[in-house]
């Protein structure tokens, strides 16, 4: 009897094969695709893997104006450049899965994983008989969990399959058709090609950022005053009025209190506790990794996925903040204790292991946790995320931290000032989670009625500030709060907005002119596309497939109807939309002012050299231009010498003036110095000057392309 197990990734296939049989044999198909063969329970088992999605949606007729009639095709046929590597995996599954007696779907247990495996079984194995297919459900790639999942297989959840199909079809309808219509509007209006993209979740996400950008631009700051006294011990105490918006009142307080000492009016002592944090779900992990390490959500998600496939942590794409008792906490802590640093904390755990679970749940997977298997050879960043997960896991089992707070009110000539001091009385979980600062301040030895020396009185004039821009972590939290996107897609959506040049900035997300105009234009001519309600409604209906309150067919039909409405709106206003989008694109590429004629310096792309450069908007009258290295970012700073933009480029990142000749004496001809003989062609080696500084190059360039650094040449000559 032949059984075929289909996995999502090669690493998963290897772990499943070795869990089922230590003597599993590794095989290779076509010198590229690894698969495994083993015997178990009188069955010949083949374990083979996909590499993510092997099949993609594509139109039945590419000549159709609108793509509503779709079918699944091998990804390497749909996207020949980006998915060519999947061809061998499809062929391997076709050959190895042909005419098997039974099949096991062992991809990740979520909507995407379910769809990946279903398509591989249906199209590569040609398997439509669901009675031959069973499903392994696991949250970690440990031997124990994999054996349990194999021995307790479940039926394939067709609702989960339909949810995945409906989501992909909706995203195709909205993303491809509307993006194509917007690009066509630019082509009609300006006879130019402009790569644009819109999407069911992407566009409302951009709208959120544009809304915040406008709040910031329209914000009118209001002056206010903060009055503080510095008392003995150099402790800062604040006037009870807080922000004082009346200048006369602020001056009155300063006049009354200047040069006066304070009397202790009230002292209150109170106790408080801070509960342990809840276990990580994906959003929580992404947020904490951003706050602690500055990692982007996409990077954190990628590292967490690698830790999972390596068997070190559980499945990361979960919404759950709960750790069920079935996880066998004692066993996990026992294995983690083999690490000396972890053991210091684990040895202090309470005898009864009860985690501080959060409210959010996920039917498919528990909260993110370590498996107990200690990793070997992790990179620095992977180790940071692994340790963050471990210490969070440890800390949720400890008791609350306890604090005592001293709240003091001082009186200075009838004006009340307050300060608080807080000290820890019991560190609790905070002692075992090294990513939180513990407040532990000294209390002043004072009593009610005491006279306290005022060292200084300060009036700080400030202005109210606009709302803060989102960063990647706070944007993901906002999307989660508004129920836009999924835990698995939110980081990708943000990445796409960066890729399309709608937004920029790493610490804070700024919307550029193209992104703002995209939303303004779409809001004017087709509001439905920017509507959060429409997107949220579809998300709820997609989730409704799981509980049979909606169907795949109904959702796809409604999606087609909504897209047709949006496409009609775009078509009616095609010229206006195209003109506005192209003009905003041009504006978004302006990087400075031309030093020759005063025109605009614009970032452009040359299809001939296949590289970007900066040229004057008054070309051909003005031919000023500057080459720029690949991956260049334009900073807000300008060169002190010439006023041109400062750019960053290279790895590691370097900063320099846009003009590579800035500061050089152009009146004197530059004559490269001969410094040796080329080891490749025998011609003289010249010391040249480039954007990256001095380097050694062959005089025979471009026929001979030998180069080296000045340091490398000096080392060879010594």
Task: Note down, in words, how this protein is organized.
The protein is of the alpha+beta class and 718 residues long. 36% of the residues lie in helices and 24% in strands. The protein has 20 helices and 29 strands. The strands form seven sheets. It has a seven-stranded mixed sheet, sandwiched between helices. Strands 15-12-13-14-11-10-16 form a seven-stranded antiparallel sheet, covered by helices on one side. Strands 19-20-21-22 form a four-stranded antiparallel sheet. Strand 20 and strand 21 (611-616) form a beta hairpin. Helix 1 crosses helix 5, helix 3 (87-96) crosses helix 4 and helix 10 (297-309) crosses helix 13 (380-395). It is globular. The mean pLDDT is 91.
Q: N- to C-terminal separation? A: 70 Å
Radius of gyration: 32 Å
What strand line-up does the widest sheet have? 2-3-4-1-7-8-9
Give the strand content.
15-25%
Name the helicity range. 25-40%
- Poorly predicted spans: none
Shape: globular
Q: What is the count of β-strands?
A: 29
User: Number of helical segments?
Assistant: 20
Average the pLDDT over all residues and give the rounded result.
91
């Amino acid at each position: 009897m032949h059984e075929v197990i289909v996995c999502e990734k090669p690493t998963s296939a290897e772990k499943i094969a070795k869990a089922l049989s230590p003597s599993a044999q590794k095989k290779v198909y076509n010198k590229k695709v690894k698969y495994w063969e083993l015997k178990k329970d009188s069955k010949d088992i083949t374990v083979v893997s996909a590499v993510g999605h092997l099949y993609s949606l594509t139109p039945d007729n590419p000549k159709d104006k609108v793509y509503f009639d779709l079918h699944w095709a091998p990804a390497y046929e749909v996207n020949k450049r980006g998915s060519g590597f999947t061809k061998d995996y499809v062929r391997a599954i076709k050959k190895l899965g042909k005419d098997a007696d039974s099949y096991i779907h062992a991809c990740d247990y979520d909507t995407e994983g379910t769809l990946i495996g279903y398509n591989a079984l249906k199209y590569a194995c040609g398997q439509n008989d669901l009675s031959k297919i069973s499903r392994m459900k696991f949250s970690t790639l440990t031997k124990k969990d994999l054996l349990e999942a194999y021995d307790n297989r479940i039926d394939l959840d067709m609702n989960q399959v339909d949810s995945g199909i409906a989501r992909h079809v909706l995203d195709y309808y909205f993303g491809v058709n509307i993006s194509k219509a917007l690009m066509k509007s630019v082509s009609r209006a300006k006879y130019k090609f402009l790569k644009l993209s819109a999407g069911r979740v992407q566009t409302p996400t951009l709208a959120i950022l544009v809304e915040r950008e406008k709040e910031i631009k329209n914000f009118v700051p209001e002056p206010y005053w903060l009055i503080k006294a510095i008392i003995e011990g150099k402790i800062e105490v604040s006037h009870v009025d807080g922000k004082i918006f009346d200048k006369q009142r602020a001056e009155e307080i300063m006049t009354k209190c200047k040069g006066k000492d304070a009397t202790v009016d009230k002292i209150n002592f109170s106790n408080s506790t801070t509960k342990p944090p809840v276990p990580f779900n994906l959003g929580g992990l992404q947020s904490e990794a951003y706050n602690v390490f500055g990692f982007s959500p996409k990077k954190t998600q990628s590292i967490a996925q690698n830790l999972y496939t390596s068997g070190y942590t559980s499945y990361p794409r979960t919404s759950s903040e709960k750790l069920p008792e079935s996880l066998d906490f004692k066993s996990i802590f026992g294995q983690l204790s083999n690490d000396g640093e972890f053991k210091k904390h684990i040895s202090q755990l309470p005898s009864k292991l009860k985690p501080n679970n959060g409210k959010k749940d996920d039917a498919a997977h528990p909260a993110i946790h370590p498996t107990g298997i200690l990793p070997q050879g992790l990179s620095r960043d992977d180790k940071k995320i692994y340790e963050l997960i471990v210490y969070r896991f440890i800390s949720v089992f400890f008791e609350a931290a306890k604090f005592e707070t001293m709240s003091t009110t001082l009186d200075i000539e009838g004006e009340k000032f307050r300060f608080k001091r807080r000290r820890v009385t019991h560190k609790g979980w905070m002692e075992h989670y090294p990513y939180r600062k513990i407040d532990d301040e000294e209390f002043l030895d004072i009593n009610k009625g005491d006279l306290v020396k005022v060292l200084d009185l300060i009036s700080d004039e400030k202005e109210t500030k606009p709302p803060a821009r989102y960063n990647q972590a706070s944007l993901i939290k906002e999307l989660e709060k508004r129920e836009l996107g999924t835990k698995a897609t939110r980081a990708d959506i943000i990445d796409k907005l960066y890729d399309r040049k709608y937004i920029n900035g790493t610490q804070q997300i700024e919307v550029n002119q193209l992104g703002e105009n995209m939303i303004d234009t779409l809001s004017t001519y087709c509001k439905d596309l920017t509507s959060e309600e429409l997107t949220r409604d579809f998300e709820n209906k997609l989730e409704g497939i799981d509980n049979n309150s909606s169907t795949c067919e109904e959702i796809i039909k409604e999606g087609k109807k909504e897209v047709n409405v949006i496409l009609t709106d775009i078509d009616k206003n095609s010229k206006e939309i195209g003109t506005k989008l192209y003009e905003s694109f041009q504006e978004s590429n302006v990087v400075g002012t031309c030093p020759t004629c005063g025109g605009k310096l614009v970032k452009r792309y040359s299809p001939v050299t296949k590289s970007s450069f900066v040229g004057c908007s008054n070309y051909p009258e003005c031919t000023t231009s500057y080459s720029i290295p690949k991956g260049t970012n334009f900073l807000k700073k300008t060169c002190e010498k010439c006023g041109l933009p400062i750019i960053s480029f290279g790895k590691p990142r370097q900063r320099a003036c846009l003009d590579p000749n800035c500061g050089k004496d152009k009146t004197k001809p530059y004559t490269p110095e001969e410094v040796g003989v080329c080891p490749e062609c025998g011609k003289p080696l010249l010391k040249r000057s480039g954007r990256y500084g001095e380097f050694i190059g062959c005089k025979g360039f471009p026929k001979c392309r030998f180069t080296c650094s000045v340091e490398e040449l000096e080392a060879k000559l010594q």
